[in-house]
Amino acid sequence: MRVMVTGGAGFVGSHVVDALVTRGHDVISLDVIAPPAHAGPPDYLRQDVDHVDADLRDLDAVRAAVRGVDSVCHQAAMVGLGIDLNDVDAYVSHNDLGTATLLRALHERPFRGPIVLASSMVVYGEGRYRCGEHGVVRPGPRSTADLDARRFEPPCPVCGAPLAAEAITEDAPLDPRNVYAATKLHQEHLCAAYAREHGGPVAALRYHNVYGPRMPRDTPYAGVASIFRSALERGEAPTVLEDGRQMRNFAHVRDVADANVRALESGVDGSFNIASTTPHTVGEMADALARAFGDRAPRPQVTSGYRLGDVRHVFASPAKAAREFGFRSTVTFEDGMRAFARDPLRAAQIVASRTPVAISPSTSPATAMR
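The chain above was modelled as a monomer; its predicted structure follows.
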């Protein structure tokens, strides 16, 4: 199968390329390889695939790249919470316009093969919560007053009682609460509209906190695991926001790449959580990574700081992906964190927030949350 991988030089995309080649597929990778995601062409780029150095918003370049492809794995995106709303136009341009340009080029063929989209857990907003009296409820965004007072847990929106967090499933209401999240949901909607027009399957894989080798370091768009890892390498204590008890799934990038290949080969349609089986807190992740650095490594410092774009708890059930295309995470949290302490990271170039960024995924969803 001839597969085009957008963002194929990036964190997740490059692992997807590796997994596809291992499975015997013919791959074309399209990536602009620009800051802040890359300081230059990464040394892990394969010599046995076709690389196209182009911006996904360049319609002529994308038209040429999609000729003859049987399937598309769309990883390219500007990720994370970024710096502030000065990034809003860049997010919309790279994520939404980039996706629209890709879909237009496919429409002109016309293309009816499978599309796999790298989506994100952030489309859910807050996760799933249950009130002892009112059952499953949807708390609203947390207020600045509550966060300043260190009331981090969202209360029941009906009675104000404490809530119990539960694993979220793909049929949950979608409630994006930051710019990045809004663009990821729009990508899902654009791809779904294309599928209705042409009849081919679209699988939106909602990644949950991806980590592993080739994550970018030292950039506002890097993932939480990379931020903690960089601090430990500098001999500094990782800074954990809120009280460190935010629940998340942490999925190893090799498992995420395997999910992409399985989804492409099976031609599934719909949305799927791509997550580890067992959730952990952000504090547990910071502790595990610090332990992996050895006894002399500084211990994580838990603060009461917060980011308004963050949500409290969001972790998932991966049962649908397991049932429909056989995905199961294989890298345990403990093994993954031990390896991540030694995994090579990718050098990134810091640029001003208004400068256009690379179309190349550097993470995982909820990347900027620490």
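The mean pLDDT is 91.
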